[in-house]
Amino acid sequence: MNHKISLPATGRVVEAAGGLNLREALARAGVFLESPCGGSGTCGKCLVEILDGPVPPPTPEESAVLSAEELARPARLACQLVPAGDLTLNLPREKKEARILSSGLARASAFEPSLVKKLLLWPGQRPAEDNRSFDQLFADLTGAGLPPDDLHLRRALAGLRTEGAATPLTVVWADDQPQTLEAGDTTADLFGLAVDIGTTTIVASLVDLTDGRELGARSLINPQTRQGLDVLSRITYCAEHGQPGVEELRLAVVEALGELALGLARDHGLEPRSIHLVAVAANTTMLHLLAGISPVSLGAAPFAPVFLKSLTLPPPCLGPGPLAGAGLITLPSVSAYIGSDITAGVFVCDLDRRDRTLFIDIGTNGEIVLAADGRLLACSCAAGPALEGMNIQYGMRAAAGAIEEVRLSGGPDECRVELDVIGGAEPVGLCGSGLLAAIREFLGQGLIRRDGRLKTAEDLPAGDPRRALCSLRDGKPALDFPGTGLCLTQKDVRQVQLAKGAILSAFRALLLQAGLKISDLDRILVAGQFGHYLSPASLTGCGLVPQELADRLEYVGNTSKVGAYLALTSRSARRAMAELADRIDYFELATFKDYDHLFTDSLRFPDPPAA
User: Fold this and answer.
1) Which of 106, 554, 574, 609 lies at 20 to 30 Å from 548 by C-alpha?
2) Are 58 and 67 in contact (CB under 8 A)?
3) 332 near 324, Cβ under 8 Å?
């Protein structure tokens, strides 16, 4: 039996098929809730408030993650709630538009695009004795035959006129191979997309392939986050659902690319069919899913990818939809967990020409590459989604209403808390940069111990103004942001500790592998969406990066998308990136001697810097 789900805040009424949980029913109607855990009921992000209708008793999962206040509201988790009747709901945590980084360090490269257009005159009426096949005639006119397996082009040839005057045709050439045909002279109408597909976000730039100009950029949240925020959740989803699950995730990202293409084309007065090539940099799992190839082998030892080299796929590999006429090229990866986004970053930063320089991309996964004594060493770690505001009590993406910076100050009689909020709006949550800033400040005020335990009011002297920041939530210690209703919980701090421990231990293991000390490093290059918005004080204050390296940090932005741009506009850059990927030596942290001890030691927060 179907039930009606009313959402008065938006005026929508959604129909939920019998047996579906609320999360699935809303997703089928295009209403997506945050669900970092992939619907297992462990993250608490898909919370809904029941305004009217039957309220079921809480499941064990809901009782574990929701507060007594939330349960009494009544609030439930959409992934756990199977409607037993019509419901009227409020969605307090519905997705907000996120702030996504699209720019990055530039690198000069020769302009020699992978795609060009050439004009061709196709004969109309031919002499009776000229009975050459269409593909033979094409080869004779252009000097290049059609690929033997390309039915797409042969079907296009079949539609050409065979009478009257010669017809002008434009041939789109990709890497010296014909890709598509267009009626008339469209040689001035040639565009591509440079794309960074991240686990959490997707960024695309529109590029004029006649001159290399980058015309504009758009971004959105990767729709695959419906099946979990990290790559392991999506690998698990594919393992459980087989090839249909892989295809579901492939279509989700292809549709997202189509949406970005439509928006960019509209921004610049173009037709989407003018976009003929898409170049993609992404982690290895995202590339497998984009190609419709199961990533299940990446999820268990020996973590063997199906492919690492670049892919070059003709149309309609991104169809059906706005990009059905576009080909696809992907950048090369290094290993299961060092993807082409990192190859791009290493190339863009000229890391192979540097010495004692460390490149780090901080996100759901942490990838690190060290240039030392002519070698490039790499490792990766699973940092988890906490640093992007997920799995945090009041965590959220970097969107309007997110606290992005925290400052604590005051004397013996008061403790002032200043908050910077994205968009200047009322604070509704903490994004990753705000989360680390809060921990940095609470550490500095002595309200979080080095082992991560929160202090309570009873731990502080009577009259200490810091006591006003200490509270109990469901009987457990928390640190408040006065006047907001928001707080930092003990569980939040533990989540950040795990992420910090993963990143810092990988950092230290890489140096030990190369026989270097922290003091030997000349420069740390911080790449990626998350790292861009972190101040050096937050990176070192929370201990993700050792404090003595604060003055050696350099932010390089979205180097993944820049690498995709270079692959789109420079064939020599593509070749160089392929050679570079082969030079990067990857090692598994699990094989590193005494790594467990290194990780445990890296969990501790640093001492506050001396005043």
Assistant:
1) 106
2) no
3) no
Q: Encode 80-105: b = buried (16+ Cβ within 10 Å), e = exposed.
A: bbebeebbebbbebbebebbbbbebb
Write out pLDDT tens, residues 258-276. 999 999 999 999 999 899 9
- CA-based angle 44:35:201, to the nearest 5? 135
Give the global pTM. 0.78
Tokens of 82: 């199977």
User: Rounded to an integer, what distance in angstroms lies between the CA atom of residue 362 and that of residue 533?
Assistant: 11
Residues of the chain with CATH 3.10.20.30: 3-90
d(CA 190, CA 227): 35
* Residue 224: closest CA among 482, 472, 36: 36
Q: Which residues of the chain form CATH 3.30.420.480?
A: 191-330
Structure tokens at 172: 């789109």
pLDDT at res. 105: 56
CA-based end-to-end distance of the chain: 66
Domain ranges in the chain with CATH number 3.30.420.40:
345-384+499-602
Q: For residue range 3-56, what is the model confidence (pLDDT) as tens digits?
A: 888 888 777 888 888 788 888 788 777 676 766 666 777 777 788 889 999 999
CA dihedral angle for residue 279, residue 560, residue 344, residue 404, rounded to 10 degrees:
180
Q: What is the CATH number of domain 345-384+499-602?
A: 3.30.420.40
List the one residue out of 292, 373, 309 whose CA is nearest residue 343: 309
pLDDT tens-digit readout, 63-95: 888 888 888 888 889 889 888 888 998 887 554
HEC string of 75-99 equals EEECCCCCCCCCEEEECCCECCCEC
CB contact at 8 A, 387 and 362? yes
In which residue are the tokens 């196709």 written?
Answer: 122
Closest CA to 246 of 289, 304, 305: 289
Q: Which CATH superfamily is domain 3-90 in?
A: Beta-grasp domain (3.10.20.30)
Category of 57 on φ-ψ map: left (φ > 0), alpha (ψ -120 to 50) or beta: beta
The 3 state secondary structure assigned to 278-315 is EEEEECHHHHHHHCCCCCHHHHCCCCCCCCCCCCEECC
CA dihedral of residues 268, 271, 273, 279 (deg, nearest 10) = 10
Check if the beta carbon of residue 72 is closer than 8 Å to that of residue 427.
no
> How far, in whole angstroms, is CA 242 from its chain's centroid?
23
CATH code of the region 191-330: 3.30.420.480
- Taking a C-beta distance cutoff of 8 angstroms, is the pair 397, 221 a contact? yes
> Of 147 and 198, which is predicted with more confidence?
198
Q: Is 26 helix (H, G, I), strand (E, B) or coil?
A: helix
Structure-token pair, residue 174: 């990709």
**SS3 category, 47:** strand
From CA 344, how far away is CA 95, in angstroms rounded?
Answer: 30
The strand pair at 357-362 and 523-527 is best described as: parallel
Q: Pull the structure tokens for residue 537.
A: 């004080």
* CA–CA separation, 114 and 176 (whole Å): 8
Measured distance CA(102)–CA(117) in Å, rounded: 28
Residues 124-146 pLDDT 10s: 888 888 888 888 888 888 888 88
Biggest CA pair distance of the chain: 106
